[in-house]
# Entry
Amino acid sequence: MKKRHTRWICLMTALCLLMGLVLGCSGSAENESVATSVEATQSAEDIKTEEGVAADASNEPPAYAAPESMGEPPTGTPPEGTPPEGMGQPPMGDPPDGTPPGGMGQPPERPDGTPPGGMGQPPAGGPGGGPGGPGGSSADIDYSGAVEITSADSQTDQTYATDTVDQSALLIATSEAATIVNPTVTKSGSSDGGDSCNFYGLNAAVLVKDGANVTITGGTVSSDASGANGIFCYGGNSGRNGAEGDGTTVVVRDTVITTTGSGSGGIMTTGGGITYAYDLTVTTSGQSSAPIRTDRGGGVVYVDGGTYTSNGLGSPTIYSTAEIHVSNATLTSNLSEGVCIEGKNSIELTNCDMTANNTKMNSNASFLDTIMIYQSMSGDADSGTSSFTMTGGSLTSKSGHVFHVTNTNAIINLNNVSILNEDAQNILLSVCADGWSGAGNVATLNASKQAIAGTILVGSDSTLTLNLTDGSVLIGTVSGSITNAKGTTVSTEVGTVNVTLDSTSTWALTGDAYITSFTGDAASIVSNGYTLYVNGVALTGTR
# Structure
C-alpha cells in the first residue's frame, strides 16, 4: 500500500512537471510570435521610407529584371542579429521588367551630375549657354523635317510647319545649294533632347547641315517650343571645339525670327558652321535663348545691320563659343547680360548700339553685368584667351558692372565707344572670383581714343593690365574691396594691377588707388586730392 502511494505521488509529480513544460513553451512561442510581428512591421515601414527616398533621388531608375531562377527561400529560422550596415531590407513587390545590365542582376547606378538642358532642369554652365557634359553625337540623331530638301533646290512663298517633337519644319541636308525666298516657318512641339538640340540642331525650326550652302531671304521664322532654335547652322564637326566644319553655310537676309521657348536662340551656329546675317529682326523670350547664339564646336558668325532683342533669363543678345563679328546692329537685352563670351572665343562689335538691363542672375553667377567674359569648364568652349572688341557705337549699362571677367584670361579692346553706366555703384570693370573655378581671373583692358569712367575692382587673386593710349581718359579709381550681388564678400585687398599711360592719355583719380606698377609720366595723373600708391609707395609728381 505504501509503495502504491509512493508510485502515485511520483506519477502525479511527473505529470505536473510535464504540463508546466508544455505551458512554458507555449507562452514562449507566443511571445516570440509577437516580437517577430513588431519587427516585421517596423521593417516594412523602413522599406517604404527608403524606397520613397530612392525614388525622389533618382527620378526614374533604369528598369531591370531579377535573374531567371530566383531559387527557393531558405528554411529554418532566420539568424539572430541585424544585417550588415548598408544592406537594408529586401525590396517589396515584384521585380521590375527588363534585363539586368552586365549580367550582374542589379540596376545600374545613376550617373553623376544633372540632367542635360531641356530635361526639366535649368541649363548648367553659364548665362545663355548650353549645358556641359559629353554631348553625345549627331550620328545618334534621327533627323526629320516636315519638308526635307536633300538636293539643289529653290523654293518661294512656301509654308513650312510642324508641331511634332524633335522634327524641324524645314530640314536642308545636302552638299548642294538651296535658295528659300519669303518662307513662312512655324514650329511647335517642345523637345527634351538637351545637347542634341543645343549642339546638333534637333527640333530647330529650320536646320541646315551636311555641307549645304543655303540662302534665305525675307519671310518669317517662329518657334513656340523649348529646344527649338530659329535658324540652325550645324557645321558637322561633332562638337569638337576648334575643328574644321564641313562647309555648311547659311546666308539669311531681311527675315523676322521670333522664338518664345527655353533653349531657343534666334540664329544658332555650332559644329564649325558659318552664318551670315543681314538686317534681321530677331526677338527671343525664353531662358538660355540668345538672339545670336552659338554652342559647342563653334564656328564663324557675321552679322550686319538688324535688331536683336532678348527678354529671357540667361539670354544675352550674343552668346559666344565661336568667332562672332557684328556691325551696325541694335542689340537690346531686357533681363540678362548684353553679351557673354565663354572660353577661347571672341566677339567684335563695330558701330553697334547695345543696351543691357541685367537684373537677374543665372546659373552660377553672383554678379550683375553687361559684358561678361568667363570660362565655365563645361566643355562647351576650350580654355584660352577670350576677346571682346568694340569700336564706335554706344554701350549703355543699366544694371551691374559694365565689364566682368572671371575664371579666364580676357582681352578687352575699346576704341571710341560711348559708354553710359546708369548703375548707382558706377563699377566700370570687375576682375575677380565668381561662381566658376579652374582658371585664374586675368584681364587686359586696352583703351584707344576712349573715355572710360568708374571704379575698377580687382580681387586679391586676380590680375589686370590697363593700357591707355591715343588720348584716352580714365576717371576713376582702383580697389580690391569687392562684394557680389548676393552680398558675399569676394575680396578685401586689391590684386595685381599694372597701368601704362602714353603721353597723350590721362587718369583723373576719384579716390585713393593702389596698383602694382605704373609706366608713364606722373604728370598724366590728375590727383584731385587723392593719392596713387604704386607697390605701396605714393607716386609723386602728379598734378
Q: What stands out?
A: The chain is about 10% helix and 40% strand. The longest helix spans residues 2-58. Confidence is low (pLDDT under 50) at residues 1-125.
